[in-house]
Design goal:
Number of helices: 14
Largest sheet: 7 strands, mixed
Strand content: 5-15%
Strand order of the largest sheet: 2-10-9-8-5-3-4
Shape: globular
Bound molecules: pyridoxal-5'-phosphate
Oligomer: single chain
Distance between the termini: 25 Å
Helix content: 40-55%
Radius of gyration: 21 Å
C-alpha cells in the first residue's frame, strides 16, 4: 500500500482489496462470454451465502446503486393503496418513505429523535393498529450511525403477517444478518459499502414470499425495476446460460464474484466465514469506539446497543467544525461530514467496513489521523493514548 495515498474511510465507497481491484481492472468481457456467464452464476450463488439466505431465495445483481434497490423493493412489494410501516432512523428512512408515497402506498412513519431508534413496542403498536403488508427498516442508517435490531423486527413482522424488507446498504456483509434464520424477506445493498466493491451494482435477495408479493401485484412496477423482468435473467445466468434484458455491468459482476469468493473462502464453510466477518467488524468497531472515547468524541447514537459496527457518527467537540476534515485528510484518512439535515454541520462520520477491519494498521492510521487533525484545530487530543486504546482491542485473540 502506498502510504502517500490517504485511506478512504467514509461510509462508502470504501477501500477495496487487491483481489477485487485486480478483478475490476480486467478488459470488459462480453455479457455472453462463457467465462462471464460462469462468473455471473457463481456470483449469484455466493450472494445467497453472504446473505445467509435460504436455497429457495432469489438473488439479484442489477447495474445501479442502493437507491435503485430500495425503489425496486418499494414498487415490487406493494400496490398503490396498500399499507406499509417504516421504522425510520434517519435520512434513508425518509427516502424510503418518499419512494413509497410516490408509489401511492399508505405509509406509517415510526420514527424516533435523532440518534435513537423507535422501540419494538412502538413498532408492534403500528403493526397492530391496522394490517400492514410490509415492514421496512434501515439496518444501519448511514446518516446517524444507528443500527436497528433487525432480527427482532423481522420476527415482529412475521407475527403480524407482514413481509419485512431491510435496507442493508451500510450493513450487508458487515453487520450480522441471517436472512433465512430470521425469516427476513428482502435484504438489499449496493456494491460500494460493506460488501467491498467499487460503486455500480444494486444487490438484493428476496424470499419466496417476497417474490409472491410481486407476482400478485395489480399495478406492475416500471419495467427496468420490475423483479419479474429481472428474475428470469438471474435464473438463466445461475443455470449458466446467457439471457438479455439490459446489458449487465460485466466488469463489476466479474469483480463481485472475486469479492464474494474472497469473503467466503476464509473459513471452512460459508456460514463460518460470515460469522467470522461479522466478528471482525464488531472488533474493529469496538477498537474505534475505544479510541473515540479517549479523544472525548461522543457518538450520535444515544445508547451503546444502537451503535453500528460499520461506521462511527461523532459530534464535533466544542469549537471544532468541518474544517477539521481537511486536516484529518492531510494526516492520511478521508472521513465524511454529516448527512442528516437536522445536524449536518455538527458531526462527522468515519467508515470502518470491509477489508480495513482485517488490517489493524489501517485502523490505527485512521485513529491517528483523526486525533492529529483534532489536535491541529486546537482540540486537546492524546494521539498515542487513542492509538493504544484501539490497539488493545485489536490485539484480542482472533475474533473468528
Ligand atoms: C448509501 C446508502 C443508500 C444509497 O445507496 P446509493 O448507492 O448511494 O444509491 C441507501 N441506504 C443506505 C442505508 C445507505 O447507506
Amino acid at each position: 500500500m502506498n502510504d502517500a495515498r490517504p485511506l478512504l474511510m467514509i461510509p462508502g465507497p470504501i477501500e477495496i482489496s487487491d483481489t477485487v481491484a485486480d478483478a475490476a481492472g480486467i478488459r470488459p468481457p462480453s455479457h455472453v462470454a462463457p467465462s462471464f456467464i460462469e462468473a455471473f452464476g457463481e456470483a449469484l450463488e455466493a450472494l445467497r451465502e453472504v446473505w445467509c439466505a435460504g436455497p429457495d431465495s432469489q438473488p439479484f445483481v442489477v447495474a445501479g446503486g442502493g437507491t435503485l434497490a430500495m425503489e425496486a423493493a418499494a414498487t415490487n412489494l406493494l400496490d398503490p393503496g396498500e399499507r406499509a410501516v417504516v421504522v425510520n432512523t434517519g435520512y434513508f428512512g425518509d427516502r424510503m418513505l418518499e419512494m413509497l408515497r410516490r408509489r401511492g402506498v399508505q405509509t406509517v412513519d415510526v420514527s424516533a429523535p435523532l440518534g435513537d431508534a423507535p422501540s419494538l413496542d412502538a413498532v408492534r403498536e403500528a403493526l397492530a393498529a391496522a394490517p400492514a403488508k410490509v415492514l421496512f427498516a434501515t439496518h444501519v442508517d448511514t446518516s446517524t450511525g444507528v443500527r436497528v435490531d433487525a432480527a427482532a423486527l423481522a420476527a415482529l413482522a412475521r407475527e403480524h403477517g407482514a413481509l419485512s424488507c431491510f435496507d442493508g446498504v451500510c450493513a450487508t456483509a458487515g453487520e450480522t444478518f441471517l436472512q433465512a434464520d430470521w425469516g427476513a424477506d428482502v435484504y438489499l445493498t449496493a456494491s460500494q459499502k460493506a460488501v467491498g466493491l467499487p460503486a455500480g451494482l444494486a444487490l438484493w435477495v428476496a424470499s419466496p414470499a417476497a417474490m409472491k408479493a410481486r407476482a400478485g401485484l395489480h399495478a406492475p412496477p416500471s419495467m427496468s425495476l420490475d423483479w419479474s423482468v429481472w428474475e428470469p435473467i438471474q435464473a438463466a445466468y445461475e443455470a449458466r446460460s446467457p439471457s438479455y434484458f439490459s446489458t449487465p455491468a460485466t466488469t463489476l459482476v466479474w469483480a463481485l464474484r472475486a469479492g464474494l469468493r474472497e469473503i467466503l473462502d476464509r473459513a471452512d464453510s460459508p456460514r463460518a466465514a460470515m460469522l467470522q466477518r461479522f466478528a471482525e467488524h464488531d472488533r474493529a468497531a469496538r477498537a474505534m469506539r475505544a479510541a473515540w472515547a479517549v479523544l472525548g468524541l461522543k457518538p450520535l447514537p444515544v445508547r451503546d446497543d444502537l451503535q453500528a459496527n460499520t461506521l462511527s457518527a461523532l459530534w464535533y467537540p466544542e469549537g471544532v467544525d468541518k474544517g477539521v476534515l481537511g486536516r484529518i485528510k492531510a494526516h492520511g484518512a478521508i472521513v465524511a461530514g454529516g448527512l442528516h439535515p437536522a445536524a449536518k454541520t455538527r458531526y462527522f462520520r468515519v467508515g470502518h467496513m470491509g477489508e480495513v477491519t482485517r488490517r489493524p494498521s489501517d485502523l490505527i492510521r485512521t485513529v491517528r489521523a483523526v486525533a492529529q487533525g483534532l489536535a491541529d484545530v486546537g482540540h486537546a487530543a492524546d494521539v498515542e493514548a487513542a492509538c493504544d486504546a484501539a490497539r488493545e482491542v485489536l490485539s484480542e485473540a482472533d475474533a473468528g
